[in-house]
UniProtKB/TrEMBL annotation:
Places the protein is found: Cell membrane
Keyword Transmembrane attached: yes
Protein name, per record: Mechanosensitive ion channel family protein
Keyword Cell membrane listed: yes
Protein family: Belongs to the MscS (TC 1.A.23) family.
Species for this entry: Deinococcus aluminii
Length: 376
């Protein structure tokens, strides 16, 4: 059986043309029904924008002229925010009045406007309260940021919940679903959560503050920032290192800045034949000549240990908190000055040496005794 095949029907062109025609007719109906109101709504939005600009200029001018607070950015920011919310509310009310399908949302829009004003004023009061309390308890910058961020997050979530409730949307089931998802994500991101908990612990325990110089098992530097995930330090070589909070919280941390002044111990070797009292006088004179060494507590030169081939002296002295940053350089300068002073006075600074005796091997010629001195 043979018949003639319609190519347009075979390729689906007839169905496509019919769908396009139906869509175009729908667009024309929508434009005919809502087009004038949409154009009027756009003109109203433009009008309200111009009114907002003009009223803002006049309000700021009056604020600066009569109340003399033009130099206060907080007053200007509050006034600008209130004006924006007000004109936004007026614009939304005008739009809902133009479209009958949105007319029943007019009351909700006005309630949201009042709610946003209340939330904004409330956040200002909360910020002031947090500022007074953090100043009273002398919290450091990191802990202040943590408290402010957590409070802001809770306040924003409360605002979103209240705004959604004005439109009849219940967010509790959604939050419950997000909690289940968050629990699943938490099992998959245990390291991130561990660093997060460790960061909160460090902020509450406060073993160090921003600007302190700390030393861990692998790093030493100045704390530049403490986030909920990492502790960031700047080393003496100006390298910026981010250490996971879990490692910092579980390690031994030495705070070089918290105690104020810092005591340094510098070891200097001395030959057994030399007199300790003489070397002490020379080294104390060296310490008094270093500007960074504090006179009180007084520096000390003590015998730390009697080694196999030398006496180990220790120079104990204190430096101020402002010199903690450069204490390795001060230590090197003291070592250099001590070596030069001892060498100039003829006091031997020995180098490590070891004597080996071989049993059963006769010595044909006894070597003449000689003195080994460190040639520095």
């Amino acid at each position: 059986m043979t018949g003639q095949v319609d190519p347009s029907r075979l390729l689906g062109l007839d169905a496509l043309r019919a769908a396009l025609a139906e869509t175009w007719q729908g667009v024309r109906d929508v434009v005919a029904e809502y087009g004038p109101n949409a154009l009027l709504a756009a003109l109203l939005v433009l009008l309200y924008a111009l009114l907002f600009w003009g009223v803002s200029k006049v309000a700021f001018a009056l604020l600066g002229r009569f109340f003399q607070v033009d130099t206060h950015p907080i007053a200007r920011r509050v006034l600008r925010t209130v004006l924006r919310l007000t004109f936004l509310m007026l614009g939304l009310l005008s739009i809902t009045a133009l479209f009958p399908a949105l007319a029943h949302w007019s009351g909700a829009v006005f309630r949201v406007y009042l709610l946003l004003l209340l939330l904004y004023v409330g956040w200002g009061v909360i910020q002031r309260f947090l500022h007074v309390q953090t100043e009273h308890w002398e919290l450091d910058t990191s802990l202040r940021v943590l408290v402010s961020n957590v409070t802001r997050a809770v306040w924003v979530l409360l605002g979103v919940y209240l705004v959604a409730a004005q439109f009849g949307v219940n967010l509790l089931p959604i939050l419950g679903g997000l909690g289940v998802v968050g629990l699943a994500v938490g099992f998959a991101a245990q390291d991130i959560l561990a660093n997060l908990i460790s960061g909160i612990t460090l902020l509450l325990d406060r073993p160090f503050r921003l600007g302190d110089w700390i030393r861990t098992e692998a790093h030493e530097g100045q704390v530049t920032r403490l986030t909920l995930r990492t502790t960031r330090i700047r080393t003496r070589d100006n390298e910026h290192v981010s250490i996971p909070n879990r490692e910092v919280a579980g390690a031994v941390v030495e705070n070089l800045s918290k105690g104020g002044t810092l005591r340094l111990n510098v070891n200097v070797p001395l030959a057994y034949r030399e007199h300790v009292g003489r070397a002490r006088q020379l080294l104390l004179k060296v310490l008094r000549g270093v500007p960074e060494v504090l006179p009180d507590p007084a520096p000390q030169v003590l015998v730390q240990e009697l080694e196999e081939s030398r006496v180990r002296l220790v120079l104990r002295f204190w430096i101020g908190a402002e010199h903690v940053v450069t204490y390795p350089v001060i230590r090197m300068q003291v070592l250099e000055a001590a070596k030069e002073a001892l060498q100039a006075a003829g006091v031997e600074v020995p180098f490590p040496r070891m004597q080996v005796h071989l049993d059963g091997v006769p010595s044909a010629v006894s070597p003449e005794p000689r003195e080994d001195r460190a040639d520095a």
